[in-house]
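Section 3.1: Structural characterization of target chains.
Under the original work plan, the team committed to producing a structural model for every single-chain target entering the pipeline before any wet-lab resources were allocated. The record below documents one such target. The sequence was received from the expression subgroup and is listed exactly as submitted; it comprises 206 residues.
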Amino acid sequence: MSRTDELLAAAAAAPGFMPADEGLALHAAALAVEVPGPLLEIGTWMGKSALYLAAAAVATGRTVVTVDHHRGSEEHQPGWEYHQPELVDPVVGRLDTLASFRRTVHPAEDVVVAVVARAETLAPLWSTPLALLFLDGSHTEESARRDQDAWVAKLAVGGTLAVHDVFPDPADGGQAPFGVYSRVLDSGEFTELPGTGSLRLLRRDR
């Protein structure tokens, strides 16, 4: 089994919320991008999507950068649907997914750089044009807009923007990622590429 196949198998087995078909589509998009630069994701949870990206990175000589504060999104907090009490740090009393993330991405540590920070805090410090930007952070309207405003402009011309959990029908899911996708497409600066499930892909043209 090749290393790429090993990482794809690890991604499929890793904890997380990305369906296999969408993960493989993200991997394929990362393989297909033709401009230089790193692959950067906003919101990594426990690293499942990072492994799909890492499998492409080892095949193309790229680096994956994950940006996450590792305190979880709104739906992961106490009293919410996806809360996991075993992830709460008993010392500080807050959710902490960093150790779980490191266990997940252990086989890809040579190509994955983890930045533990809020995306809007890192953005002013970041200047390297991105080959692929994967937006999968908090899905509140405010947070999704903030990630869009802070990071989409950092995508290289010819680079790929991937947006997860895009649901045109409100009955299927929250609308913040759909809003990001719609605004970016309406800007006239992007061409939509074939997507899979709730994963939308757009190429920056200018």
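The radius of gyration is 16 Å.
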